Amino acid sequence: MEPRLNLFDNEFAAKFGKRFAGAGLLVEQSPLPKTTRELVSLRVSQINGCGFCVDMHTKEAMAAGESAARLNLVAAWREAVVFTEAERAALALAEEGTRLADAHTGVSDETWARVREHYDDDELAALLSLIALTNAANRLNVIVRNPAGSYEPGMLAAMMD
Q1: What is the pTM of this model?
Q2: DSSP letter at 92?
Q3: Which is nearest to 152 in space by CA: 71, 70, 62?
Q4: What is the pLDDT of residue 8?
């Protein structure tokens, strides 16, 4: 399967990708825990049906030491006992922030209150930025039909150097 447009080889897309990666680097350097970042990115990518990003975030999370059991349960996190309350709040925000069109209020006050219990302003700003960036990346990859399965941990960071 070939992508409709190779986002890594196209000059404009590569320039955009480097700037986009720069925004992602800010999130990486934030106080938001790496585990939370990967779980949230994985869940957003699952919702959006982005195979490339599901592949990437699963493999990056595993390389960072995340367990297969927790990764396998991200799609069913509400029924799983392997996530902390803070992770559950972040996953709820990620889902509601990704499915904005599904509710006229966007993110519920209940979800917002739960997130505020667990994250300070800097962590929350990073979490919001991560959700927005992941949704944007998903849309780019789904539109061009970027295939999944060949991602290796660290590969995207190496391409952006």
Answers
A1: 0.92
A2: H
A3: 62
A4: 81
Sign of CA dihedral 87, 35, 65, 56: positive
Please check whether residue 69 is in contact with residue 161, taking contact to mean a CB–CB distance below 8 angstroms. no
Other C-beta atoms within 10 Å of 106: how many? Answer: 13
Instruction: Choose between 2 and 121: higher pLDDT.
Output: 121
Tell me: the pLDDT tens digits for 57-73? Answer: 999 999 999 999 999 99
pLDDT at position 98 is: 96
Domain annotation for the chain: domains and CATH numbers = 11-159 (1.20.1290.10)
95, 89 Cβ separation under 8 angstroms? no
Which residue matches tokens 């979490």? Answer: 127
CA-based Rg of the chain, rounded to a whole angstrom?
15
